[in-house]
Write a structure and sequence with these properties.
The chain is of the alpha+beta class. It folds into two domains: 140 residues, Sandwich (Jelly Rolls); 78 residues, Arc Repressor Mutant, subunit A, CATH 1.10.10.10. The strands form three sheets. Strands 1-8-3-6 form a four-stranded antiparallel β-sheet. A hairpin with a 6-residue loop joins strand 11 and strand 12. It is globular. The mean pLDDT is 87.
């Protein structure tokens, strides 16, 4: 059961009063998913808005040749499924779990009632969607114009901002992605990511002795990004 305290930790609702949060919590249904489950699939009807309460997910699309392209990674406090709420369209992308996940689901009818009663939600959604659009445009530009070292360096730096934890030798990326998942984010192959990561390790830019990548020299990584 997702309680009011969990709802208030979501940035979208952080400034809401206790009564408002309680009203939102009353519309939320708790759902859990295992790692690598699909929560929604591209092309499905969109009847539900989701709040990510625990865990991380990828926003992805399956390309015509069968390859998976990861468009973004969302973490605790983020939301998804909002576009179909506004125009009743089919899902424009799939949402796949990267870790075990807990979400709060709000049905279409309840979502519209929330928007009518709380205009601040609409404003917050517009701001968040604008930020996502800028990030998506930056990713597209990087993928088409940068070499693999620059693309991987940029990805690692972005992950360190989203999921970074300070450790003795640098910044540990707490989200553990496979080399294939990283390749799916920067339009390359698993083998290329593996080779490039090993070169970064040889150059003492990263440390990969443990299960999670540690950014050792962020300044030198940034120097690789035009």
């Amino acid at each position: 059961m997702i309680d009011a305290a969990a709802i208030q930790r979501v940035p979208l609702f952080r400034d809401f009063g206790a009564d408002e949060v309680a009203g939102i919590a009353a519309t939320v249904t708790d759902r859990t998913y295992a790692k690598h489950d699909f929560i929604v699939r591209e092309g499905d009807p969109g009847h539900t808005f989701f709040i990510l309460v625990k865990g991380s997910v990828s926003v992805c699309r399956i390309m015509p040749d069968g390859r998976e392209m990861i468009l973004a990674i969302l973490k605790e406090g983020d939301f998804f499924g909002e576009m179909a709420m506004f125009d009743s369209s089919l899902r424009s992308a799939s949402i796949k779990t990267l870790t075990p996940v807990e979400v709060g689901a709000i049905r279409y009818a309840d979502f519209l009632v929330l928007l009518d009663a709380n205009p601040r939600i609409g404003r917050s959604l517009v701001i968040a969607l604008s930020e996502r659009l800028r990030a998506a445009n930056a990713l597209i530009a990087a993928t088409t114009s940068q070499d693999i070292r620059a693309r991987l360096a940029s990805l690692l730096l972005n992950l360190s901002v989203q999921f970074g934890e300070r450790v003795d030798n640098g910044t540990r990326i707490s989200l553990r992605l496979t080399n294939q998942e990283m390749a799916n984010m920067i339009a390359t192959t698993r083998e290329t990511v593996n080779r490039t990561l090993n070169r970064f390790w040889d150059e003492k830019l990263v440390d990969m002795r443990a299960a999670h990548v540690v950014i050792v020299d962020p300044d030198r990584l940034r120097a690789l990004v035009p």
